[in-house]
Amino acid sequence: MKAQFFDLKNKVVLVTGAARGIGKEIALALSAQGAHVVFNYRGDDSKAIALKEELEAKGGKATPLKFDITDYAAMTTAIDEFTKNVAPISGLVNNAGISKDTLLLRLKPDEISSIIDTNLKGAMMLTQALSRNFLKAENVSIVNMSSVVGLMGNVSQAAYAASKAGLIGFSKSVAKELASRNVRSNVICPGFIKTDMTETLSDKVKEEYAKSIPLARMAEPSEVADLTCFLLSNASSYITGEVIKIDGGLYI
Ligand code: NAI
């Protein structure tokens, strides 16, 4: 039985990178709460149409918004059109992200750029583009998807960890800067979640990881989605600038 957050009904929430994985699960969980989910994607339009139908079947409205998070002109046009013609956005989930596992010695400048541009600059630019709109919306909540790797570091993930650590400093700054406007900003740090991003790991590596997790398993994306719904809802109305790990105890 899922917790019901009644104030999420009709709340307009933008979720980036929502075509699959954690983002898609967040979109589904929000739809089940009756939210109007504005889901960002950058690939196949037919898949976006199918996702819109899947989300609306759960309840609430769904609007696809196509842009690449690193294409700031396209992103600004898409959100300006939506907020002008449809409604102010009062929830933002900066979820889109990429990883590229390479030892620091082999990391190429363009790989560093694409990881930072997607995971950190993309979230910063989108939040900035929406900040004027946030002043018109009520009970705004921003959720930034970081990673435990942003707190702990990891072998072969120097650029990814740096981008995710940067997101934490960014989120805390937004929390301070926009608090007077009743805008909250929090970070989720997932551990190992079953998605396409982690699917590429071998069974042996997954078993090794599971040994370092006290709860001895990877998480379902729906578990991250449930936490995201809580942080978007008024049930977390006094929580801002916070960093919440969801990692089965990996960090302990
Ligand atoms: P995923 O690879 O399954 O999904 C990522 C989504 O982001 C995809 O839909 C992709 O198209 C989208 N995306 C990537 N670059 C984009 C761009 N430039 N513009 C628009 N969309 C873009 O990954 P997953 O596992 O669902 O991860 C979601 C978030 O959670 C990421 O930020 C990731 O770093 C973070 N995370 C995931 C963990 C895991 O174990 N799966 C652990 C910790 C954090």
Bound molecules: 1,4-dihydronicotinamide adenine dinucleotide
Provide the CATH architecture. 3-Layer(aba) Sandwich
Instruction: Give the SSE string.
Output: EHEHEHEHEHHEHHHE
The first-to-last residue Cα distance is 28 Å
Q: Looking across the biggest beta sheet, what order are the strands in? A: 3-2-1-4-5-6-7
Q: What helical percentage do the residues reach?
A: 40-55%
Kindly report the average pLDDT value.
96
Uncertain regions: pLDDT < 50 for 5+ in a row? none
Largest sheet entry: 7 strands, parallel
Q: Rg to the nearest angstrom?
A: 17 Å
Number of self-contained structural domains: 1
Strand tally: 7
SS content category: alpha/beta
**Shape estimate:** globular
The CATH topology is: Rossmann fold
Write down the CATH class: Alpha Beta
SS element count, helices: 9
List keywords for this structure.
single chain; 9 helices; 252 residues; alpha/beta; 7-stranded parallel beta sheet
Could you explain how this protein is built, in words?
The chain is of the alpha/beta class and 252 residues long. The protein has one domain: 3-Layer(aba) Sandwich (Rossmann fold). The protein has nine helices and seven strands, in the order E-H-E-H-E-H-E-H-E-H-H-E-H-H-H-E. It has a seven-stranded parallel β-sheet with strand order 3-2-1-4-5-6-7, sandwiched between helices. Helix 3 (72-85) packs parallel to helix 4. Residues 16-17, 19-23, 42, 68-70, 95-99, 118, 145, 147, 190, 192-193, 195-198 line the site of 1,4-dihydronicotinamide adenine dinucleotide.
